[in-house]
Amino acid sequence: MCTPTPHADHPDSHEERPFARGLGELRTGRRTAITAGAAGLLFSTLAGTQVARAAGGADTRRRAYVLVVDGCRPEEIDSGLTPNLHALRGGGLRFPRASSMPVMETIPNHVMMMTGQRPDRTGVPANAILDRELGAIRDMDRAGDIKVPTVIERLNRRGLRTGTVLSKEYLYGVFGERATHRWEPMPIVPVAGYAPDVFTMQATLAMLEEFDPHLVFVNLGDIDRFGHSDLTGTTLQLARRTALAATDALVGRFVEELKSSGRWEHSMLVVLADHSMDWSLPTQVVSLQAPLEADPLLAGNVVIADNGGADLVYWTGPSSRRAEAVRRIRAIAEETEGVLRAWDRRAEWLRLGPEAGDVVVFCRAGWRFSDPDPLTSNPIPGNHGHPATRAIPFFLAGGHPRVPRGKASSAHARTLDVAPTVASFFGLPSGAALYEGRARI
Known about the structure:
By secondary structure, this protein is an alpha/beta fold. It has two domains: 29-279 and 388-425, Alkaline Phosphatase, subunit A, CATH 3.40.720; 285-380, Gyrase A, domain 2, CATH 3.30.1360. It contains twelve helices and 20 strands. The chain has helices spanning 18-27, 83-91, 106-115, 119-122, 151-157, 169-175, 197-210, 222-229, 238-260, 289-293, 322-334, 418-425, and strands spanning 31-36, 41-46, 63-69, 93-94, 128-131, 136-139, 162-166, 181-183, 215-220, 267-272, 278-279, 285-286, 302-306, 310-315, 339-344, 359-363, 368-369, 382-383, 394-397, 407-408. The strands form five sheets. It has a ten-stranded mixed beta sheet, sandwiched between helices. It has a four-stranded antiparallel beta sheet with strand order 13-14-16-15. The two termini are 32 Å apart. Mean pLDDT is 92; it is low at 7-14 and 51-57.
């Protein structure tokens, strides 16, 4: 589930939203605001950074662009609606077995892209968690939530310029001040918490023109947002198909700019999704709050962070009874219709860390979680977070000689391969000492 979690749900919560924190960074002078040309786009730059294109930075013409087509399913690139993405995929190096990683949500997989590390190291396992210190469920939208260095920071230290153009409020928040140049996204769609792709691409092109960063990290959110709300998702997918075609046209515009400006032959594009999408009917909703509260041990001692296709369940009772509670939570969850599997969060393969609570529950394909309230907590038909949404498109394109042409790889590429791939492209260390992911060039 990608709809931002309301911070005000908890009476003791006085959390600032990410944009408010961003304005604070501008007021304190940590970042400098710059308006781009006649378009009136607002960017911010790290204080003390030279903003002229030729100033600072290593002496390299190489450019890397990470384009995240948020929520895109791999088969949608063969739908006929995305000719530009289809051409990029066919002309470069594609990974048909590619996948996102648990939990298959937006924030953790974008963090994995830029860190090359799993959530038990990054500290970011899901979109929404129970913040035990705050005593409330919140989005992982704080810059301090990321506990390890990103490839953005590693490039900065080498004198390379970096930029983020992130359409979603919580992505803007979690990546914070890391990039040399940052788009301050607007206009923001109320409730959805994101800027539409037409503005995001306008900002991307303006960032190239104004600052020409060596790395630009872009999130295009329309495909995901339209998919969430598409009431025809289980059948016609009318809104979804509209978004696919529109976003693809914007990607085509971006490629045209790279070619016309002479950047293409020096560039590598990493194009991927953070997760795919699954749709459910109103009758196929799982809510675990009531059955867990009906258990004498668990009543009043569990909190659920709903992540659409995954529920993170937190035991808040005495630690001496945690093992017994985990067994009860798993048993009750797995007896509930629509649940695929309930895992002890400490299962080695999950690699989620303590921020993810005590039990991680995935729903079946065609179902969604709605907790704590089965009617109001998650009414949207399109969701992700569960294994049905693991498969993603992932391919490399561009005119730089290091980018293979017209090839397919049987390797299992993952979202955490992006950071080492970018590092390798720029000649930085990209091995296992720094990244769990693998460089794919």
